[in-house]
Fold this protein.
Amino acid sequence: MLNPKTALFFLAFLPQFIDASRGAVWEQALVLGLTFVDVGVCTDSVYALVTGRRAAGCSNGQASCAGSATSAAASTWPSA
């Protein structure tokens, strides 16, 4: 299903990066949209892999287990 908040975000945000003098508008919008999807898939995959590995370590009885998948996912965020 289509999330209306996401659609509104794209309608408000993406047009500022589209320049009609650089080619077909629909092609530029498609490239920007696919780039967003690619970045999302990559980051979500990293979070899932890291969390899965940490959860597997927890089920093996490792003492260094932080306790939950949420803390495993939070530990993938870059520190300041």
